[in-house]
Amino acid sequence: MTDVPGAAAVRDEDAFDAGRAAHWLRENASDATGLDGDPEVRQFAGGASNLTYLLRWPTRDLVLRRPPSGTKAKGAHDMRREHDLQAALAPVFPLVPTMVGYCGDEDVIGSDFYVMQRVEGTILRKDVPAALGLDEQGVRTLCENAVDVLVALHDIDVVAAGLDALDRGPGYVERQVGGWAGRMRRAHTPDVPDHEATMAWLEAHRPADRPHTLIHNDFRFDNLVLAPDDPTRVVGVLDWELATVGDPLMDLGSALAYWVQADDDPTFVELRLQPTHTPGMLTRAEVVERYTAARGIEVDPEDLLFYEVFGLFRLAVIAQQIYYRFHHGQTTNPAYGAFRHVVAHLDQRCARLLAGRA
User: Fold this and answer.
1) CA 6 to CA 126: how far, in whole Å?
2) Which of 218, 212, 219 is nearest to 173 (CA)?
3) Residue 170, Cβ neighbours under 10 Å: how many?
4) Distance, CA of 158 to CA of 9 (rounded, Å)
5) What CA–CA distance (Å, rounded) separates 75 from 85?
6) For residue range 107-121, what is the model confidence (pLDDT) as tens digits?
């Protein structure tokens, strides 16, 4: 078996009994083919919210997702919801992973969890690997295809998919601004900025809701799987933890928060999680132009500023929630300690955008 990039030895604090998990799968999986014996277990380093593992048998690879240890934000890390949403999407969105099973019995591995079939292909991190052989035009084609996937996702008929119950009705933008502000205040630690100025601006400049669609809420390149035989083609969309039904432009703004350009400030470029600085990638403005043209909508520049600032603020809250666990000794993973600097820089970037300097 070939190595899977990003999969490494399991951290001691994140270990679980692979034998018990394998036994549960043989008894409960939708398809238990090839699951005899105990699997080799590796942990994916990418992602810092839910914990993700590779389970390897001689003829089959599965992926297991479980919540982190320690204090969790209310409503976060809902494995049942994440599993069921993807299962419902499968008939209408072929890029969703195939679900294998959900376990709500915490006695099996110490928490609930779900398991899915691994989607084979390349997942981009900070840079485009030279081995992919993509020239500037190839990178542009990949980028355009990725934006088109977001458009396709927002065009899904949520009623036909049976996901309309996720729509809480009017007021999505208001709920998001208030909800994420509350999370930031609850997770605040004294060694990071409080983001109060950004929160006040967002509260004062909320646009009206757009017609609701299915939204991913964490759409970025390291949640996309590229085809093994064509790295410009997306064959999988991962990490549906935050997905819901709401304003699609809030989803676009969240995607733009990760979209670091080559001409951004050096610290922002260094903090990037995806290779959007690569020659051939669309700029943030070009992403908006392609997206809005495909969906036949227009966005006022002031509203666009709101969506981008909200996306950056929301990203800061996610980073702070992760850092909170490290700050309070709920995890010893040193990578989580660095999130303090991410939170501080995102506060500065929001301030620069609002002052017209970014």
Assistant:
1) 12
2) 212
3) 11
4) 39
5) 15
6) 999 999 999 999 999
* Of residues 287, 264, 285, 288, the one with CA closest to residue 345: 264
Q: Which alpha helices (DSSP H) does 246-283 contain, by range?
A: 248-257, 266-270
Reference 93, options 146, 158, 145; nearest CA is: 158
Rounded CA gap, 221 and 123, in Å?
7
Q: Which residues of 54-79 are buried (b: 16+ CB within 10 A; e: fewer)?
A: bbbbeebbbbbbbbbeeebbeeebeb
Sorted by where each begins, the domain ranges of the chain are 7-117, 130-354
Token digits of residue 229: 């035989």
> What are the CA-CA distances from residue 69 to residues 86, 339, 350 (Å)?
24, 17, 31
How many angstroms separate the CA atoms of 39 and 2, rounded? 15
Tens of pLDDT, residues 256-274 = 999 999 999 999 999 999 9
Query: 130-354 falls under which CATH superfamily?
Result: Aminoglycoside phosphotransferase (APH), C-terminal lobe (3.90.1200.10)
CB atoms closer than 10 angstroms to residue 220: 18
On the question of pLDDT at 48 being above 60, the answer is no
| 130-354 has the same fold as 7-117 | no
How far is residue 126 CA from its own chain's centroid?
A: 15
What is the crossing angle of helices 284-295 and 248-257, to 10°? 160
* CA-angle at 25, arms to 21 and 26, nearest 5°: 120
Tell me if residue 232 falls in helix, strand or coil.
strand
pLDDT in tens, 289-300: 999 999 999 999
Homologous superfamily (CATH) for 7-117: Phosphorylase Kinase; domain 1 (3.30.200.20)
SS percent in the chain: helix, strand, coil, step 5 = 40, 15, 45
Q: Where are the beta strands (DSSP E) in the chain?
A: 7-8, 40-44, 51-57, 60-66, 99-103, 113-117, 213-215, 224-227, 230-237, 244-246
Dihedral angle sign, alpha carbons of residues 19, 21, 24, 28 = negative
